[in-house]
Amino acid sequence: MEISPMLIPIAGVIAGTVMVVAVVGIVFWFKARDKELQYHQDLRLKEMEHQRRMKELEIELEKTRQRNATSQAA
Fold first, then answer.
1. CA dihedral over 24, 25, 31, 35, signed as positive or negative
2. Vertex 11: Cα angle to 15 and 28 (nearest 5)
3. CA end-to-end span of the chain, whole Å?
4. DSSP type of residue 3
5. Closest by alpha carbon to 58, among 66, 70, 47?
6. How far is CA 38 from CA 16, 29, 32, 41, 43, in A?
7. pTM > 0.70
8. For the segment 15-65, what is each residue's pLDDT rounded down to a tens digit?
9. Which of 27, 43, 56, 72 is the most exposed, fewest CB within 10 Å of its CB?
């Protein structure tokens, strides 16, 4: 079984094209993954900031309740 000499350049062009597409796909995947990780990090920071503010409001509410209880007792 003999390979036609015309198939060699065609196979080379196809293999080269597939390789370029693979490299571009890998680069795109890494950039998308990096953006996804950055998004998750920003979301986590916002969540932590929200929890901190909620804790501050909770403390402020407790102080107000204590002031009201003290003023009613007096």
1. positive
2. 15
3. 107
4. -
5. 66
6. 33, 14, 10, 5, 9
7. no
8. 999 999 999 999 999 999 999 999 999 999 999 999 999 999 999 999 999
9. 72
